[in-house]
Write a structure and sequence with these properties.
Structural class: alpha/beta
Shape: globular
Low-confidence stretches: 164-169, 175-180
Order of helices and strands: EEHEEHEEHHEEEH
Distance between the termini: 12 Å
Strand content: 15-25%
Length: 219
């Protein structure tokens, strides 16, 4: 109902689902043999990348389903000049591995192969000794040790909405997560990330209302 009908020739969109699906796949759905929980995102991302690689794609965009895209602008963004590109996570410090926002990032075929071959977090030989659900941190580390570094594109934007002033906690957060209320004029990817009622607790209907409002504003 929003950006999907605007996808031009040259971009294929697939929705990936893991184990536990009880219905037959729709034409744009792919069922994978992987854990489909939020806690096991690196596993699912690895299997998505494996699917793209096995189907001979030169590039794959890992994109969450709470993202509004401008498909034509995305296709013309220059992603094909880089092995790894996306919007830099604002909490990254200069001396750290540069990590994109996890809602939307590109991998070339070369980068796909590295992700497929890399042990998952917590597995023997992994870049991360403990299990975690941060797929973008794992992917970024795999890229980093293989000499591939994130190309930062400012046109990916995390929309957090008009949030209330947070309550004071007993312990200060480790970092400030700055955000802007307005995206850049040439934005082509907007993630609707609303924590108005706590982490991942905003009701779906509120997220959808915000999604449609933003689509109308930026389309």
């Amino acid at each position: 109902a929003t950006w999907l009908p605007k996808v031009p020739e040259g971009l294929d969109v697939r929705f990936f689902r893991g184990r536990g699906a009880t219905s037959d796949p729709q034409p744009d759905e792919v069922f994978l043999d992987c854990d489909d929980s939020y806690q096991r995102l690196p596993n699912k991302v690895q299997e998505i990348v494996r699917w793209a690689y096995d189907h001979d794609y030169d590039f794959v965009l890992k994109c969450d389903d709470d993202v509004i895209l401008k498909p034509r602008e995305l296709l013309a963004s220059g992603f094909e000049h880089y092995d790894f590109s996306g919007g830099l996570e604002t909490a990254c410090l200069p001396n750290e591995i540069q990590t994109p926002w996890g809602f939307c990032y590109w991998l070339s075929r070369k980068a796909m192969r590295l992700v497929i071959d890399a042990p998952l977090p917590g597995q023997p030989g992994s870049t991360h000794s403990h299990w975690h659900n941060n797929d973008e941190a794992w992917v970024s580390t795999v890229m980093h040790i293989n000499g591939i570094f994130l190309h930062n594109d400012h046109r990916y934007w995390l929309h957090r909405g008009e949030r209330l002033k947070p309550k004071r906690s007993l312990r200060s957060p480790k970092r400030d997560y700055p955000y802007t209320r307005q995206p850049p004029a040439d934005v082509f990817a907007v993630c609707v990330y609303l924590n108005w009622k706590g982490f991942h607790q905003t009701p779906t209907e509120e997220v959808l209302r915000e999604f449609h409002m933003l689509f109308e504003r930026y389309k």
